[in-house]
Fold this protein.
Amino acid sequence: MINLIGTYECKVDAKGRLMVPSALKKQLAPMMQNGFVIKRAVFQNCLELYPMDEWNILMGRMNKLNRFRKKNVDFIRKFTAGVKTVEVDTNGRLLIPRDLIGFAGIEKEIVLSSAINIVEIWDKEKYEQNLEGSSESDFADLAEEVMGNEDFDAIP
């Protein structure tokens, strides 16, 4: 499992290409030859960039869902809507497909934010609004609820 680190601001050109920041490119280098998958996020209007190996792990889990249950089929369809494979070209650029740019409301300035094993791609203004949308105490409550579980030490 990989642990990506950092938040990076950059720009998207008129064709939807972004220059991957060198610090992030260095972290992604071992995964470059296998490519990436880009998709709509589930909970936010941003995009998620998965290294192919991470995507394959996730698809392995999803492939175990019983496809004779309507809710599972509906979930798979919606989760994979707009999914595309992408590569970083020889100039270090990544092309974001037009439909996904529209979904995320990406204008010109964007934020690439590491989220453990994936990279979130945000319109800069939307990213800042998302961070400002909750107070410090909201985050503290969330941290306690998510990470403060008394069984946390037992989680492998």
Notes: The radius of gyration is 17 Å. DSSP finds six helices and eight strands in the chain. Residues 20 and 70 are 39 Å apart (CA to CA). The mean pLDDT is 92.
